[in-house]
Design a protein that fits this description.
Layout (H helix, E strand, L loop, with lengths): L1 H10 L1 H20 L4 H19 L2 H11 L5 H25 L6 H27 L10 H4 L6 H27 L6 H32 L5 H44 L1 H11 L11 H19 L5 H13 L4 H22 L12 H5 L1 H8 L2 H18 L2 H21 L15
Length: 435
Amino acid sequence: MSFVNEFYPSFWWIPAGVLTAALAIKLPTIVRLWSDPLLRAVGGLLLLACAVFVFVAPSTIAWVNRVTGVTNVSAPWVYSLLTAYCGSCLLLIIAWRNGLSDRSAQTVRAMRWVVATYSGVIVALWVLFALGDAPVERLRDLDTYYANTPYLREMILLYLLAHTVATLITAWLIWNWVRTDGLDAWLRWGLKFLGAGYASQLVFDAAKLTAVTARWAGRNLDWLSTGVAPPIACLSAILIAVGFILPHAGQYLHDRWRVRLAHRELRPLYLLLRTVNGGGTPFLLRATPELRLIRRETFIRDVLLPLARHIDEDRRRSYYDAALALGHDAGRAKALACAASIQDAVAARHRAPDGAGDHDGDTTDLLREIGAVSRALRRAEELWGVRVRAEAEAGAGAGAGAGAGITAQSSSAARSSASAHPAPTAHPQAEDHAV
């Protein structure tokens, strides 16, 4: 316990800092969605938890006692904050699990019972403190020092029992919730951390109650209250903070990752189409990932629309049939056909920039499936195989007499076309710094 004793004066600021960080992370969402009562409740709960650990620090206890001029007045104040926190936990879990739309008689009755009970406990704590006598200031061991003092004994026991009951009910509700089906993965992990945090609070309560009851029996187990309970409380605060942060932060990071992945997925098609007009989208230093994705998608669609007149629909259908013949499924075959057709259209535009050889291209699939088309451009070998197969089938249909010669020429042409339009990953490219 020497470690705890050495760092006890600053020990309580660790969970206070963690809980403050959790509140800071959720604060922008709370402010943006202020009309959501559940988010406001989470913010209030984290604020109460921060207040508990700030006011339980020995330096803060001494400051409150000195400012008010009442010895040990910090005790009922901290106990009141802790009791309010317990009641808020119960209310939040009841509302969170049942949903705000659930206004059944049972839910309303449960919430009213929580408010009435824990409000009554807070009032009783102050009444008992006023009736008791605590002349000696205790910054660390008030629970055990006054464990046998009339009225103060009841005050200490009351706050510990209220905390234990709230923790038991909250942990039970959370673990039952975790076992339900259909939960989001991030929410499930957040609930697991919350459940572990509240379960560790039961260890805190057990240590405190054991130390207090030992005093009643004339024994001294104060080390449980001053040496074991504080680190357990810190661990509990960290687990609960992670539990509240994880569903929000995890979903946020997951969404950001999906956006960045979609942005990177469009890179091959973006690099190919950037050769059409010699440039891309301007670089914006402070652009968000969502904005960069939107700008890249817009650029691709804007270039594809005029490029459609250079797409040969008959050739695209032949590419599609060739891809199917090579064993690709319909979706993959369509993407490969579109990718090869875009490569041909880019080359055709460079040969006839003024519109010679225009076709009435259908851009529906191109505009709708740009992600799949861009992925297909990464597979240079598959595109080359589709070209060879398409040209070979075209040569075979020209007639058996000239079939062999045409097929040889077609294969050579296919190789030339594939080398002229390699997938963007087939050769080194300058790094893409545009959005």
